[in-house]
Amino acid sequence: MKRIKSALVSYGNPRDIATWSGVPFHMLRVLETRFDMALVVEKPWAGWFRPVGRVLKALTLRRFQYNTSAWFTRAAAAKTIARVKAAKPDVVFVVSSFSIAHTLTRDHRVINIADSTVRQMIGYYDSFTRSIAGGAKGADCIEARAISESFVSLYPSSWARESAINDYGATPDRALEIAWGANIEGRARAARSLPAGPLRLLFVGAEWERKGGPLAVAIAHELAGRGVPCQLDIVGQSAREMDGQAGTEAKRRADIIFHGFLRKGDAADSEKLDALFADATFFLLPTYAECFGIVFAEAASLGLPTISIATGGVTSAVRSDVTGMLLPSTASAAEFADAITAIISTPGRYTAMSQAAIDDARDRLNWDVWADAVEVVLRSRLALEVG
């Protein structure tokens, strides 16, 4: 069967594993095995895009948001637009960039890939809301164009897909949910059993407050206070960074260990992170706002049950009471501790959750499964055009 000729553009370099936690990197890797990838754009923007944009932003007292301006993004992407046109692809994958997608929909079948929409992000992620201040209207207009004019939009969660349909009027057949995979190589071979020693809780997150860092610490203390031996390993923060923050008291406790930021692209850091996942009993990330959370797929691939909050795309990444437990955003540390102790009080339930996570990572939270589904969708839609 002839491969579909395609091109891929991402907001950053998709060949760099550090771009957006490795999502474009892993997407590209599996797409290249199934599609005729005629073009991969590593530098989508002109060199002047950010420096000139920042100057204009400053001169207008932040009223001008260069990355949500239709004319400015189109001008800065002129070279990319020309390169894609010259490649003559059947489809163009645009990963996590409505700012680029809208510039290509006029002349190409754009596959708009994202984990959220502008409307649901405003007021949900504080960092996004602050960064887009003054440019929300422009961002919304660009997002609307990208969704309405794209050949198809692909999302990893029902949360994001429903926003595309309900907020932007996408038809259900052009806004699809296909779960994403893990950005690590390791896979669990067998389900985990509860360890004989202390519980090991693993927290991985760079945005301490949004990811629920203080709550994770409180949960560990709550368990310890109940006589449950517990160690919390924190990746993404260091004890030094916690000075004056919620972790100041925690860093003095022997059961709280800060490992700092670990880079997957660094061999030593990657090895350390692998060891932390291997030694963990639960993946604990009580995040208050999350579009999907690749790290949940990573935990599942290693057979590690997850404890988190039912918010955003987490409800698609984690199957509550099957591959882990999702509590409401109002849940207290005591309620989280109740959920954890309920699981460990029945060892067979823990092992069943671990096995369910492994199965879910094999059958659904898997980049190969994602790419297969994408190919089926695109072949079907292209056949409809011909028909």
Please, could you describe this protein's structure?
- The chain is of the alpha/beta class and 387 residues long.
- It is 43% helix and 14% strand.
- The chain contains 16 helices and 12 strands.
- The strands form 2 sheets. It has a 6-stranded parallel beta sheet, sandwiched between helices. Strands 9-8-7-10-11-12 form a 6-stranded parallel beta sheet, with helices on both faces.
- Helix 9 (158-168) links the parallel strand 5 and strand 6 (175-177).
- Helix 10 (213-225) crosses helix 14 (333-344).
- The longest helix has 20 residues, at 367-386.
- It is globular, with a radius of gyration of 22 Å.
- Residues 244-248 and 250-254 have low confidence and may be disordered.
The overall average pLDDT, rounded, is 92
Alpha carbon gyration radius: 22 Å
What pattern of helices and strands is seen along the backbone? EHEHHHEHEHHHEHEEHEEHEHEHEHHH
Helix percent band: 40-55%
Shape category: globular
Q: Could you tell me the strand content as a percent range?
A: 5-15%
Sketch the major β-sheet: 6 strands, parallel
